[in-house]
Structures are given as C-alpha cells and as structure tokens.
Amino acid sequence: xxxxxxxxxxxxxxxxxxxxxxxxxxxxxxxxxxxxxxxxxxxxxxxxxxxxxxxxxxxxxxxxxxxxxxxxxxxxxxxxxxxxxxxxxxxxxxxxxxxxxxxxxxxxxxxxxxxxxxxxxxxxxxxxxxxxxxxxxxxxxxxxxxxxxxxxxxxxxxxxxxxxxxxxxxxxxxxxxxxxxxxxxxxxxxxxxxxxxxxxxxxxxxxxxxxxxxxxxxxxxxxxxxxxxxxxxxxxxxxxxxxxxxxxxxxxxxxxxxxxxxxxxxxxxxxxxxxxxxxxxxxxxxxxxxxxxxxxxxxxxxxxxxxxxxxxxxxxxxxxxxxxxxxxxxxxxxxxxxxxxxxxxxxxxxxxxxxxxxxxxxxxxxx
Length: 367
Fold this sequence. Notes:
Layout: H1 2-10, H2 13-42, E1 47-62, E2 68-82, H3 93-96, H4 110-138, E3 141-144, E4 150-151, H5 156-160, E5 167-171, E6 174-175, H6 179-186, E7 194-200, E8 203-209, E9 212-216, E10 219-223, E11 226-227, E12 231-234, H7 238-265, H8 276-289, H9 291-310, H10 317-330, H11 336-366
Antiparallel strand pairs: 1-2, 3-12, 4-11, 5-6, 5-7, 7-8, 9-10
C-alpha cells in the first residue's frame, strides 16, 4: 500500500487528475448502466450492447447471452443498447427480422419500460447510500460536539448569555451528546423558551433562551446562533450505517434540488455549476487527499448523476419517464412527431447546458 501511495504521489498533477477522473466517472457510469442492464434482464428484455465510454472500442467481447461488452476510448459516459429499443416503424426490415420475439424493449408494457429506465438513476442513489454507509461503518460518521465554539453577536444565544466553551448537556431536560441533536430540538421551537443545561468552568448552569425565527427552504425554523465544536467520528454498526447513509443521500438530494430551484429563480448564482473539467479537477484534488475524500466525492457525484438523469428533459431518463407517464394516461404512445420535437428540444437544451458549464469551467480556470 505504501508503494502504491508513493507511486501515485510521484505522478505529475495532470496524469493523476485524468486517472482519478476516469476512475470516478467510470465507476458512476458503470453502476448507472448496470441498473438499466439488470432491470432489462429482470423484465425479459435482451441487451445487445453494454458500453462504458464512447467512440471506437478499446476492448470488446461477447458473453454467452449475446450481449457485447465494450470499453470506449472517450470516458465521458456510457450506454446500454436494448434489443428492439426503436419502434417497429422506425426499424428497417432486415433489423426487424433479427429481433427475438418476446425479448424486445418496445413490446413490453409501459410499466416495465419505465422501470428499466428508472433503474439507472436508482442505481446511482443506491451506490451513494452504500458508499456513505461504508464510510460510516469503517471510518465513522462525523458528529459535532455540543461544546459551543462560537456565538453569533446579537443572536438569541448571545442575549441568553451563552458563551464559547459552554458545553450543552441537556435541552428541556433531554440529554444531548451531538450537535445535530441540538439543531433538531431547536429548529421547531422558534419563539419558544428552551431551557439549556450547560457546563461552564466545571459548573453546571441552567440558561433559558428563545430561538429566533429564520426562513429556510423547509419553512420557518428556530435558530440560537451558535456553532458546535470540532467534529468527532462515531463508527456505526452495519444496519445503522446503512440507515445513516440513506438519510445522507436523501439530505444531499434535497439540498441539490433546493440549489437548482434557487438558480432557476435567480436567488443563487449559476457560477457554481461545473462540467467535465470541474469534475476532473475535483477528482484529482480528492484523490491527492486520500481514499476517503475520493469515496465521499464519488458518493456526491453519484447522487448528482442520478438526479440529473431524472430531470424531465427528453434524451435523459427523466424525459423518457415523462413520455411513458403520458402514454399511461393516454392509453397509447405519443405521436411520433411529438416525440421527435421533444427529442430535438432536449438535444438542444443539453448542448446549451454543456456549453454553459464548460464555459464556467474555463472561466474558473483562467478567469
């Protein structure tokens, strides 16, 4: 391990960044496409090809089921080619002649097609939860201590007489040992008296504070205006780690949705959006810090990839799910022209988004 670490550290920055980028993106794309693949196999759809990367294959081989596995030289995505994915009217006669009866995608019920499409993003969310769970079970979950490190001037805590160095022992008679417990107790009690039992210079004191009301994405919450102490790590048992990993995944998903909403309304700058260059950059930075930061980054990017693919944009999984929802409501597929216009609009939107985030990346590097 020391030899591998030494070899890794000896690499120049650019090759190290590119290798880290290829590993991170390759794992995320593989898991995403494997979700589609396994769901297709479950619903009885044959898979013609499974590719990681685009362009001319560097490696290719066929398994006994007839699926061709490919490794493309452009590591910017991947795809699963489902058997009979196109509608019969869009496929030439010679292609339809080779279709396996009962194993084509287009002849499956709309529910099965939607499940196959949704399985890709679902696999990314599952990967994130498992990666977080692995961190919490091995390294531990970061937990802020209840010792106050800072008090905001003019805040409810300052008015109540709380000071840096005070250790919060209990809230309204309930014992607390982690800062997140303090937050959960205070947030729903805006404008209400909260009794804090604190330890100061070896003495226990009781202090009453009234959390101030603040607006947050989830509504009005109570705020004391304090910061917790340095985090410590608590190692969790496997079940608790899996629960905590799932909660962490849900929390980050919600935070991402809130951030996207704020960008759409103009409340947040879009300068934070990044593309492949930014992903490569942060992958290299995380890899240089060690395995733990790299795994944590992979979990966060897996959530982002799953969420992005669920946006209702034609060409993405979310766009297909939108079309399938319309098909389920109408009782028949949308007209071919509507699908064509939708895919054209989706392609134009994705190209514009790619140009925009790439421009952000360039400005971040050279601006």
